[in-house]
Amino acid sequence: MPHGPVAIMVHLKARPGFENNILGAVAALIDPIRQHPHCQYYDFHIHADDPTRFTSYEVWSSLEAFRAHLASPFIQAMQDAAQEFLERPLEYDVLQSIQPVKANETTPIRPTP
């Protein structure tokens, strides 16, 4: 099991026609998730080539903290409510950095030439 911070990519696939339901459900959770003491980064994306696919990119202090977050009542309630909108259950990948960024260090975004 990974130790230390982990990046998580959560994948959602909406049933066609239910994309706005997913967006609404997740939009209500963005600020509470970002305020979680173990969440270091959270961003939610819609796939440019398929509006039924969504991915969140998250960084958590540990895999245990992320799994505890998934088991929290407000996340469980969202998952239960979203079942009718999803084509398949939520899936996620766990990633561990091979060279973590140090505190207060950022990776600059380079302009496109």
Give a description of the structure.
This protein has a domain at 15-51 and 69-87. It has a 4-stranded antiparallel β-sheet with strand order 2-3-1-4. The longest helix has 16 residues, at 19-34. The chain has helices at 19-34, 63-70, 73-82, and strands at residues 6-13, 39-47, 50-60, 91-95. The chain is an alpha+beta fold and 113 residues long. 9% of the residues are buried. The mean pLDDT is 87. Strand 2 (39-47) and strand 3 (50-60) form a beta hairpin. It is 30% helix and 29% strand. The chain is built from 3 helices and 4 strands; from the N terminus they run βαββααβ. It is globular, with a radius of gyration of 15 Å.
Described by strand count, sense and barrel closure, the largest sheet is:
4 strands, antiparallel
Mean pLDDT score, rounded? 87
Total count of helical runs of at least 4 residues: 3
Strand order of the largest sheet: 2-3-1-4
Categorize the overall geometry.
globular
**Stretches with pLDDT under 50, minimum 5 residues:** none
How would you spell out the order of helices and strands? EHEEHHE
Derived from helix and strand composition plus strand pairing, the structural class reads alpha+beta
What separation lies between the terminal Cα atoms?
40 Å
State the helicity in percent bands. Answer: 25-40%
Tally of extended strands?
4
Give the strand content.
Answer: 25-35%
